[in-house]
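Hi V.,

You were right to ask for the full record rather than a summary. Here it is.
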Amino acid sequence: MANDPGRNNDGPPDLDEVLRQLSRKINSIFGVKPKTQPLPNADEPHVPVLPILGLIMLVWFATGFYIVDQGSRGVVLRFGQHVETTMPGPRWHMPFPIESVNVMNMEQVRTVEVGYRSAEGGSGRSKELKESLMLTDDENIIDLQFAVQYNLNSVEDALFNNRSAEQSVRGIAETAIREVVGKSKLDFALYEGRDEVAIRTKTLMQEVLDRYKTGIHVVSVTMQNAQPPEQVQAAFEDAVRAKQDLERQKNEGQAYANDVIPKARGTASRLLQEASGYKLRVENEAQGNASRFNQILAQYKRAPEVTRNRLYLDAQEQIMSSVSKVIVDQKGGNSLLYLPLDKLLAETAVKSPVVPAEPVASATQSVPSTPAVDVNSATQHPRDNSRSRDRR
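Predicted structure:
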């Protein structure tokens, strides 16, 4: 190539000339001789092609290094075909375009919201009525919102059998919750069965995900809100309050029954025991009286007169021991008799709760006491009293 007088020698070399030189270098490496050998030109610049190619190859090979984090897996694809799955640590693969790597985190817990969407920053949430409204077994509509947390258990299935993990989880979660709620009553889904509905939904979701080999593992299903639709919220609250009042009255009645029934049972048991004791006492007394009568009858048959007198004395003793007595001694020869009415009235007042009137008390105070009178004295026999009455 001839030198151009108007050309600046300090400028960059001609691109065509560089390509020709590169072609000659490659031909010399592979032992191919060109048909026409151009004459060497001393003015042509010399370009180091091999170092440049070596640097390019070095950079190309360096792009094959990658690092798999803890809890992640690397899926190596060779021309789009799965070759291997690498574990955590530094790895190398054939650089692009021969092989490519997809590093996927298996331990990261992802959340899908069904029936609502949280605003950015956590400032609020918006409802998705198409997802939250569903029908129960007793033909009532319920507004139910829940969240699903999941991670990956198979990177191969999640990469090759699942186009979008979030959409798959959302669709299967909505299908599962509608099936569970459709087989449950309204009160069960709203109150006592909320946890059980979540457990059933999680189980059904996992079965469907495993059946389709999505490589997704459901960690938990959390109920966020369960209520009737807003249009019937007031009427539903009235029905709930009425049901609560019914339960409260039932509890009060049960508490009253628990208080009264044991007392009634205790009273009945006490009366039965008292009746049993009274029966036993009467029977024993009857048996004792019959035995005593038989003994007296036997003694009466042996000595009728003695037994009759003895019975009379015993009867008099029993009668006289329970009444107030005044014994008068007439041997002193005093015809004027003073009775100790104050003591008699005092004894009567002690034995009887009735208080005597004032005139009686004044009359009692006016009667003087006589030393010849002995009150409640049992020194004289009843026969002596009868003799004194006969002499009088």
